[in-house]
Design goal:
Length: 381
């Protein structure tokens, strides 16, 4: 494991690196992380060693949160070698829509009720409701089941592992999982973060219903499918979801909050499209990218892709650092930032800075006013 301080890129590790770059100091190993490497809570290969990288300011002060986060990130380091299916992740754009978010939060409320249920019968009834709201969401959005399953198998299982190993007692794990399901954050986006709530909830319920469930993850079956089978529940009928919603949103305050947010998001989406699609942009190609971002802030922009308000991305051409919005295309082949007010060098614009490696240049793009990062010689790579 290595911990990085973003201000000066100083790092501290618990073991030596294979490349021999780090220096032993008071029982730990220290050095400087090169600028070519991203700083993020994630696995990374550096100096011949496969690490769990942690960002110092992002390590929580609260013991429970700190232990969960560290166990989560340690799991990610070994996750690729485990017998867990890894379907291609979708963008979960439906979770930035009114109905997608509403049905997700109804599911969360039912899962919280199941986790805290006083009896097996009450638990089973609440699980049935959670699966009903999920089924209704999947009926409305055709790609939702595959998209959500992909992220839950990556981040959901990792967060479950963090809760399962980071907390000492069943009571602490249940309380933590319920805490993640209860918050309603009007400005939050769930497209990349929802699995941090659903993963521990489904995992802990499966621990009780089918202790062998983790051995079945190689099949690619989703967490909800595994739980439905373990609980011997029949298929849900989406048509009754509206009636059951009255139990979980009796005063319709959740619905009202989502309606208000939806209007604000439409305004924001229009502004992002004007800036990152319709207006002049700098386009950078994506081939071997590695990037860090805040999953709580993303905004889906339909078939156009996903807006990252902040981002640091590394690829074969260099590094781009974004503080005022970038659009990653749905096929993940290009990234666009606004070219309005770009400096003559083409390396700095409003809210972004580009650092190119030798052999790359900024040239005229496909539309008038557009710019594009291309090989300096003009040949495609």
């Amino acid at each position: 494991m290595l911990i990085v301080e973003p201000a000066d890129r100083a790092l501290t590790a618990n073991q030596a690196d294979a490349g021999g770059v780090l220096k032993l100091s008071s029982g730990l190993f220290t050095g400087i992380l090169p600028k070519a490497d991203n700083i993020a809570n994630s696995p990374m290969d550096w100096s011949g060693t496969h690490w769990t990288e942690l960002v110092s300011p992002l390590i929580p002060d609260e013991a429970d949160k700190r232990q969960v986060m560290i166990a989560h990130e340690l799991f990610h380091r070994i996750q690729p070698g485990l017998p867990i299916a890894t379907p291609k992740a979708g963008d979960n754009a439906h979770l930035d829509t009114l109905e997608g978010r509403y049905l997700l939060q109804l599911e969360w409320r039912a899962l919280a009720k199941a986790l805290g249920a006083p009896s097996p019968a009450a638990r089973k009834a609440a699980i049935a409701d959670a699966l009903l709201f999920r089924t209704a969401r999947y009926a409305r959005f055709p790609h939702a089941a595959a998209d959500e399953n992909a992220l839950e198998l990556i981040e959901g299982v990792a967060e479950y592992t963090g809760v399962r190993l980071g907390l000492a007692t069943p009571q602490a794990r249940i309380a933590y999982a319920i805490g993640d399901l209860r918050p309603y954050i009007p400005d939050a986006t769930f497209v990349r973060s929802f699995a941090y709530a659903t993963g521990p909830a489904y995992g802990l319920l499966l621990d009780r219903a089918d202790p062998a469930w983790r051995s079945k993850l190689a099949s690619g079956r989703s967490l909800d499918q595994l739980l439905r089978t373990a609980m011997r529940l029949p298929d849900s009928e989406p048509d009754v979801a509206a009636d059951r919603a009255k139990i979980y949103d009796p005063d319709k305050s959740l619905r009202a909050g989502e309606l208000k947010r939806d209007e604000a998001m439409k305004v924001r989406a229009a502004a992002n499209q004007a800036k990152l699609v319709d207006g002049p942009v700098l386009i950078v190609p994506l081939k071997h990218m590695n990037y860090s971002f805040n999953p709580q802030t993303l905004q889906a922009l339909g078939d156009l892709g996903t807006v990252y308000p902040t981002l640091r991305l590394i690829d074969e051409w260099g590094v781009i650092e974004v503080e005022d919005g970038a659009l990653m295309a749905k096929d993940e082949k290009t990234l666009s930032v606004s070219a309005v007010g770009v400096e003559a060098s083409g390396l700095k614009g409003k809210g972004w800075t580009l650092t190119l490696k030798p052999g790359w240049a900024v040239k005229a793009g496909p539309r008038k006013g557009d710019l594009a990062v291309t090989p300096a010689g003009g040949a495609s790579q």
